[in-house]
Amino acid sequence: MNASKRAIPWGALGPWIALAITCLFFTVQTERFLSGTNLSLVLQQVMVVGVLAIGQSLIILTAGIDLSCGMVMALGGVVMTKFAVDLGLNPYLALACGLGVAVAFGLLNGLLVTRMKLPPFIVTLGTLNIAFAITQIYSEAQTITDLPEAMTVLGNTFNLGSTEVSYGTVAMLALYALAWFVLRETAPGRHLYAVGNNPEAARLTGINVDKVLVIVYALAGLFYGIAAMLSVARTGVGDPNAGQTDNLDAITAVVLGGTSLFGGRGIILGSLVGAVIVGVFRNGLTLMGVASVYQTLITGILVILAVAADQMSRKGVR
Amino acid sequence: MNTPHTPAIEPLVMQAKGIVKRYGQVTALDGTDFELRAGEILAVIGDNGAGKSSLIKTLSGASVPDEGEILLDGQAVHFKSPIDARRAGIETVYQDLAVAPAMSIAENLFLGRELCKPGWLAQRLRLLDKKLMLQQAIARMNDLKVGIRSMTQAVETLSGGQRQCVAVARAAAFAQHVVIMDEPTAALGVKEGNMVLELIRRVRDKGLPVILISHNMPHVFEVADRIHIQRLGRRAAVVNPKVISMSDTVAVMTGAKTVDELPAEALA
């Protein structure tokens, strides 16, 4: 039926080819793209979207979607910085509070999806707005500055050749390795795929589908919280307007990485490649002098093209 | 109501007595009895609304009866969910191919019952023992003579019949007492259907009794050892397919004939 699909794993190779073409394009178009300092910048930009994309991948693998990811991250970032600066909380405790808020939002999404049987799209559209509003109200739309040293450590860098690599980027890579291992080598990881693939079959084999979903949404919240830590560390401020482009970028990264929006198919490392593609795009377009709003325009087109490609490849299967 | 005319040679594996199930105003099961003997394929047939599905649902734990009792190896059991029934050693195969298509055959066989590597940490982390699962998958499929080359290929690469064979093999591998098959050949073509029927026979020959629900009379007559005819929420008769004709069976099922009009040797 589709033996050729197995012979050539386009699903796994596609993102790499796309990345290679994108890099080639910007290398030709701009002089500075391949320079060490520029690659450092790409890596640092990728780390936030990359970690968001881990959480997003887990949810999309269960055939869900999370529109709230960027806003939950912004809220987490504002909570952790404001708790540390305004309340004078121990910075580590403040970070934990920010993570806690992000996990709580993930948990809320998960409970609404499983208990109320609401579609993830609508649930997270709601929590997107709730998180955005709370962020703006709580921060009074003001950026939080004068952060304690401990909150920016992950933004520090070390040199790898002529490229500066931040500790946050290393953390991101470690999280990808962990997620990849758990999804591939453990029973709960396989259950996540089964739930996305055929929830009814999963339920009949004794998998607690609702429990898997709630854990996945809460875990995704944790990843958004970690992304908030990285964002705060990179920019050195608590920014209530963070995450506005990261939201779509994270979803784009997952889809470009070859994970199907229909659930149950995809490799988490693809999302990393997808995040790098998105980062390279934004960076390259900036180098070419394309304004930010046009970058968003292009990202929007990119995500639709990627979803269309996914849709068409599925039609071939069924 | 209707006791078997031939003495029960084989012991009863599963038995239901006076099962009543109501859905609001509708009485789906009106005191039905049911008996499954060791080592047999018992077909359950009945017209739409005869209570066939309701009976199977109570036996597989998918619904809880309002009255009556279910015995498994002579012990009363009270299933609250299909998971309870599974724990008691009853596996169910569904018509709509309950498999995860993108996952491999080996993964599907062990879905929800993965084998983990030994050791305290591996057990806590539930690290998969993929090698062992693959070995066992190959052994189980060879055992049932299912001719599928690679256990690591995705289920979606298989034909409908092969997918159903995977589902049957999974049930047979894990069932301790009974395998229930709910219209396992309904979605399949002729050749594929025969492949699954052949597999059902092999499951019985391995010593597992099979309850086969089917609309397909030729299939029922081909593999069943006895046929339970459900009518109007009760067991109308249990007949012997080697003696009774297909048309008489259908006549009892639709009410055109009563049990009293059948020859005594047709009953089982």
Number of strands of chain A: 2
How many helical stretches of chain B? 9
Sheet with the most strands: spatial strand order of chain A = 1-2
**Ends distance of chain B:** 14 Å
What share of the residues of chain B does DSSP label as strand, in percent? 15-25%
Percent of residues of chain A in beta strands? Answer: under 5%
Spatial strand sequence of the major β-sheet of chain B:
6-7-8-3-9-10
CATH class of the domain at 12-96 and 168-266 in chain B: Alpha Beta
Helices and strands of chain A, in order, run as: HHHHHHEEHHHHHHH
Describe the structure.
The complex is a heterodimer of chains A (318) and B (268). Chain A has helices at residues 3-7, 10-29, 36-61, 69-85, 91-115, 120-139, 167-185, 187-197, 199-204, 209-235, 246-256, 268-287, 292-317; strands at 157-160, 163-166. Chain A is mostly helical. Chain A has a single domain (35-317), classed as ABC transporter involved in vitamin B12 uptake, BtuC (Orthogonal Bundle), CATH 1.10.3470. Chain A has a two-stranded antiparallel sheet. The longest helix of chain A is centred in the last third of the chain and has 27 residues, at 209-235. Chain B has a domain at 12-96 and 168-266: P-loop containing nucleotide triphosphate hydrolases (Rossmann fold, 3-Layer(aba) Sandwich). Chain B is 32% helix and 24% strand. Chain B has helices spanning 52-60, 82-87, 105-109, 120-125, 130-143, 160-174, 190-205, 217-223, 246-254, and strands at residues 12-23, 26-37, 41-46, 67-72, 75-77, 90-93, 178-182, 210-213, 226-231, 234-239. In chain B, a hairpin with a 2-residue loop joins β4 and β5 (75-77). In chain B, α6 (160-174) runs parallel beside α7 (190-205). Classes of the chains: A mainly alpha (318), B alpha/beta (268). Chains A and B meet through α8 and α9 of A and α2 of B.
What would a concise description of this structure say?
The complex is a heterodimer of chains A (318) and B (268). Chain A is mostly helical and 318 residues long. Helices cover 73% and strands 3% of the residues of chain A.
